[in-house]
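re: that chain from earlier
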Amino acid sequence: MIIKFLPVGTGDPKLAVSYLIGELDHNGDRRADVEILAGDPFTFSALAESVSFKYCYTSVVIAWSPKDLVTDEHISEVVSEFQQHIGAGLD
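^ sequence. v structure.
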């Protein structure tokens, strides 16, 4: 498993969301179906637009090798634990 923080976050959050849930990737190739596992992209956009920080959002990739036999339960557990760690104290 790889967790990578991307060096982005200063652009328009709506464009970031549109890219992530869009049908085409950065090469113009059709993506496999995009599935949102947690959160709401429109709420994210509204929140990110409402702050005046230079970096209004952070993009993170959590990925596995195609050789890894990852279950839906494992993905849910990793996403849940990641959210707990990244948002510690935001209850």
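The first helix runs from residue 13 to 21.
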